[in-house]
Amino acid sequence: MNSECSWYYMPRTTLIGAGAVKKTGEELKSRGVRKSLVVTDKFMAASSVMGIIKEVLDGSNICTSVFSRVEPNPTMSQVSEGVKVFIEENCDSIISLGGGSPHDCAKAIKLTLLDGGLTSLDTVPLMAVNTTAGTASEITRFAIITDTDKHQKLSIIDERAIPDIAVDDPGLMVGMPAGLTAATGMDALTHAVEAFVAKGRNPITDCTSIKAIELINKYLLRAYRKGDDMEARDGMVYAQYLAGMAFSNSGLGLAHAMAHQLGGIYNLPHGLCNAILLPYVVTFNLDCCYKDYAHIARSIGICSPALPDRTAARAFVRYIAKLDRELAMPKKTKELGVRPDDFKKLAGMAMADPSLKMNPVDADEQNIIGLYENSYEGRLET
Predict the structure, then answer these.
(1) CA distance 294 to 307
(2) Is the CA virtual torsion 132, 21, 92, 124 positive or negative?
(3) How far is CA 167 from CA 73, 103, 164, 200, in A?
(4) CA-based nearest residue to 299, from 165, 193, 167, 171
(5) Phi then psi for 127, rounded to 5 degrees?
(6) pLDDT of residue 1
(7) For residue 151, what pLDDT is reported?
(8) Buried b / exposed e along 42-59 (16+ C-beta atoms within 10 A)
């Protein structure tokens, strides 16, 4: 446990649970908002969810301008475009609508406006309306933006990036495709598992991590198999939120350091990369963290309480691999088009990723190359 002074970061306001979206207008109005830039993607801009948001905001006399050019793994150029629209449309606030990509893009837009002196506003209220259950970007101080020239993901860590209002309404997630439910759910699991052993962990993050893992164990497969299971959707909303509370304050680890590079080089879905990499990183950390992984295994009931810690920890590795299979996740990064010739480059970039600093076991470039090689071939020691 980290015994030094810890800072704990959270949104000022969270609206969570069924019907939360209906309260968004009054929350923005209470902050004096007049016109919001809605940052989203083309799919969400044309969805019924956008119609719901506009109807609620209209009821509070809040105007909107829509920036819908965000793509998976948002880029620096998309951030610049969003800044331009914000200024041209004379907006005074931002609403991000969707999953991690719109949220991250909106955070970067806000920071660019403030740091670049591009707005006369003292601050730019940001409301993140979440439509997936995994990234927790609606509550964290992290934003991941891709530099397309360098094929590299840049990690922004800034408390000003935390949305002022986080909105998690499970009703907005009912139509989420099964594959996206699986990938974002595994992202949430990776957040919670890495936070539980991170160097920056503390008693608060331990509690939120373990509860998130318990909820994911209970509800992820249900939400994946039956998208309109509202109990499961609600459970996953709380699970991913708790995982976000944990990692935003404890830090992450090697799985994220490696996954970010796969996303940057190959433009792969982040949750998918985490799903494949997580059991390999847990195995890498095992000698240091076997008691913690054993605690997780017992908490979710996958082994006998009397089982030795190291054996229970191995059971947790097998559990992750089995969950990946049940969610139809790829078994190997080879299936995603990853190239062995890039392993050294990927490892070098992972070494510079801020997430690596919080991993409980120090990893060098050769260690990371080895993990990329094993995940490429599907060589998992269980």
Answers:
(1) 9
(2) negative
(3) 21, 11, 10, 26
(4) 193
(5) -115, 125
(6) 53
(7) 82
(8) eebbebebbebbeebbee
Residue 237: closest CA among 86, 18, 63: 18
Contacts of 113 (CB under 8 A, 6+ apart): 83, 86, 87, 119, 121, 124
Secondary structure in 3-state letters for 184-199: HHHHHHHHHHHHHHCC
The answer for 297, left when phi > 0, alpha when psi is -120 to 50, beta otherwise, is alpha
The pLDDT of residue 228: 95
Report the pLDDT value the prediction gives residue 150, as an integer from 0 to 100. Answer: 85
Q: What is the per-residue pLDDT for 245?
A: 96
Please give the Cα distance from 372 to 360 (Å, whole number). 19
Length of the chain: 382
Give me the pLDDT at residue 3, please: 60
Cα separation, 118 vs 114, whole angstroms: 7
Kindly write down the DSSP assignment for every residue of 53-95, as one continuous string: HHHHHHHTT-EEEEE----SS-BHHHHHHHHHHHHHTT-SEEE
What residue ranges of the chain have pLDDT lower than 70?
A: 1-3
CA dihedral 219, 214, 375, 262 (to 10 degrees): 70
Amino acid at 285: N
128/161 Cα distance (integer angstroms): 11
Q: Is the pTM of this model over 0.85?
A: yes
| Rounded Cα distance, 173 and 21, in Å | 12
Q: How distant, in Å, are the alpha carbons of 23, 93, 96, 127, 356 from that of 33?
A: 14, 7, 15, 11, 39
| Cα separation, 19 vs 198, whole angstroms | 34
CA distance linking residue 141 with residue 194, whole number of Å: 17
Q: Are 167 and 127 in contact (CB under 8 A)?
A: yes
pLDDT at 246: 96
192 token code pair = 């919670």
